From TrEMBL:
This is Response regulator. CDD domains: REC. The lineage of its organism: Bacteria, Bacillati, Chloroflexota, Chloroflexia, Candidatus Chloroheliales. Residues 1-113 form the Response regulatory domain. GO terms for biological process: phosphorelay signal transduction system. SMART domains: REC. InterPro entries: Bact_response_regulator, CheY-like_superfamily, Sig_transdc_resp-reg_receiver. Keywords: Phosphoprotein. The modification 4-aspartylphosphate is found at D46. It comes from Candidatus Chlorohelix allophototropha. It comes from the Bacteria. It holds the Pfam family Response_reg. Gene3D superfamilies: 3.40.50.2300.
Amino acid sequence: MDDNSGLVRTMEKVLVKAGYEVIQATGFRDALDKATFQKFEILLTDFDMPEGNGIELIKRYREKNKNQKIVALIMSAYSEVELELIKNPGLADGFLLKPFLVRELLDLLKRYH
């Protein structure tokens, strides 16, 4: 999930080619709507979005799906987000600093899934 539709399309192509099923969302509200009706094994989200942030999205998804194991990964261009995640374990399972290489994304997904 990212509010940059070009990045979303590129990541979808990469992930589908790697064998993942992808449901894309292009904003916080769109992601919340989709999370209401669907279950995910992996939630890959941008941190900074209009209307909300990735941590809030992960918290809300986990609250609605308390009995489900989900891998939550956050992307951000801000390294301070990674520090926040380190200080607060459990907010997310992994972090990608933008810009990142496709290989970094795939390696992170393989580590957790």
